[in-house]
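Researcher: Last one for today. Full complex below.
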Amino acid sequence: MDILKIADKEFSSRLFTGTGKFSSPQLMRDALLASESELITVALKRVDLMNGDDDTLNHLSHDRINVLPNTSGVRDAKEAIFAAELAREALETNWIKLEIHPDPKYLMPDPIETLKATEELVKLGFVVMPYIHADPVLCKRLEEVGVQCVMPLGAPIGSNKGLKTLDFLEIIIDQSNVPVIVDAGIGSPSHAANAMEIGADAVLVNTAIAVSNQPIEMAKAFRLAVKAGRMAYTAKVAPIQQQAEASSPLTSFLIARS
Amino acid sequence: MNTFKNIFEQYDWDATLSSIIAKTETDVIHALGASKRDLEDFKALISPAAQPYLEQMARMSSHITKKRFGNTIQMYAPMYLSNECQNICTYCGFSMTNTIPRRTLTDKEILIEVEFLKSKGYNHILLVTGEANKTVGVAYINNAIQLIQSRFANITIEVQPLDQSDYELLKASGLYAVLVYQETYHKEAYKKHHPKGKKSNFNYRLETPDRLGRAGIHKIGLGALFGLEDWKADSFFTALHLQYLQRTYWKTKYSISFPRLRPYSGGLVPKVVMTDSDLVQLICAFRLFDENVELSMSTRESEEFREHIVNLGITSISAASKTNPGGYAVAPQSLEQFEISDERSTEEVVDMLKNKGLDVIWKDWSYNWQ
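Model: Here's the assembly. Have a good evening.
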């Protein structure tokens, strides 16, 4: 079995998903179960932690599903740490998807605040999954302070544009000691397969499933694409050839001589 | 201090309006095809030349909104705290010269209203007052926010413009967002419609979003009151204001509202009528201009109009609103600021949204994070 391990948890699915943008909680549940995703992120700002009877959380109750709270909406390290502490208490998980975007327009992650918050949260015992730009140096800096994985973006969040940061993702994957999960921008199953083929350990998909005309079918399509991409990666994708290699014009003289 | 006033003063109302009217079909086609749209594109999209393209604009607006905000819509409820007012606004039921019974809710009354709204499911609340600084000043508003902050995920106010330090104080008590509509960007008309009271100071109101941005308020709501002057020019200046604010206070969220003048007893007849078609065109133009800005719609609009518009670009709506202090539970019979149009209950509106394939979002923030 091809198992992905992050901190103390093992995942047989490399498709992580989100809960936003679905037209009903029931459709969300049906689509996410169809995706076979085992790690599903929930925006804390949308969850009613006080009341203990939250509609989204109720619809995520399933043996296979691990709920991953995220800090979407916070603007700095201080707010993020506060939100993570609340989540740990209310949801009884020390896992946190760290999203710090002071810019509410394009939701660009703040690298400085993210590094600061990660350092603090790791000390507080959290398993931190930081959403970041595809910045190879930042990934190494995050590794140094103890993250268990990194989540670089493929394109602006919600844009469905695919792997616009491909060159940087390849560098990150090449030099990472922790799992690399491509987060944000994946708009179609082929994008997800592409990320897996270049060696990403997992992908996170939300918008592309939630706003599809048929979210359940699209969830299945992503499940298959992620599996196919992963299989292709482990089987070693044949290198791209610039020209046909039928003859060897440069070295054929060696054969002729012998 | 650098504020929007410096940019605003470079523009002339009449020239701006003429430049919008002069937009051609070619300008509209260019605007529709652009991957990023600027203010000239926005002008084209609100121009008469764009009217034949309304269906295409609606399709694009609907698609973009769905991609960015999903199949969801946020719900909020207004809660009027006071109808005392020392301003004269020619179009408003609370205007000082109107002889209506005045009421300012006490702490106990506020909590009764809160219980009613909570029982309906609301978690985002909009507090509204007139402008009466002695009785409903910063201290009163601050007290109201502190009183209710543990009950709501998100508190917004729509009150008189305040100083930066006031906003900082209110933010510390749990304030999330502030709505401050310019009413009209036509300076002379503004003076005419606000002849008396602190509100007659055009520039102080114009610079309010700057003070909000500096105070670090999470979200600022902009808009013009349609009916006072030409909606196209007022909307251009709203877009100009939005663009300036986004570039200057880049950590702040923004929302746009589209209030059309509603009748109240003895009220003003609109100078410029904005048709339903105009309003759809404007909402779609705003969405095409800015994919990320929140667009809000109140119960001022009719049941039928709201049913159609929720899928075209709007991201938050209210329901079953009362525009009189105590209107929900304390004093349901008192006189309203304006007559609402969509009179359905919250439950009916929620059912309508579900039937339209929209999941209702009641909570999108937690006050205790900040």
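Chain A has a mean pLDDT of 90. Chain A touches chain B through 29 residues (CB under 8 Å).
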